[in-house]
Automatic annotation (TrEMBL):
InterPro entries: Glyas_Bleomycin-R_OHBP_Dase, Glyas_Fos-R_dOase_dom, VOC_core. The lineage of its organism: Bacteria, Bacillati, Actinomycetota, Thermoleophilia, Solirubrobacterales. Residues 1-119 form the VOC domain. Gene3D superfamilies: 2,3-Dihydroxybiphenyl 1,2-Dioxygenase, domain 1. PROSITE patterns: VOC (PS51819). This is VOC domain-containing protein.
Amino acid sequence: MIAHIGFEVSDLERSARFYDAVFFALGVRRLHEAPAAIAYGVMEPAFWIVNRARPPAPGYGHVALRASGRAAVDAAFGAGVAAGGRSDGPPGPRPQYGPRTYAAYLLDPDGLRVELVAGADG
């Protein structure tokens, strides 16, 4: 249903380091790169970061990235923190979203919220 998601970021290079690490852990790669934009996906670009050159407002929402299992959630969370992100909720069960949901939350370098989720219910 969604064609793509785009985050406007204040520093494209800094954000690219963060998303390269997170997406690599999830088996996703860069599919497009230009001076002002980078796009990630598996078969086609689905997640874009675009240079805005000014800080976006944190907390306007979040993007949920599907992971193949708990180990992938853990790996992506660790990769994101190591690449300059911050924890906004460590990996763990999220029964409030379904009995098999396992997720973690990161804040990217601009403070935008990224959910990593595994489980049939999330």
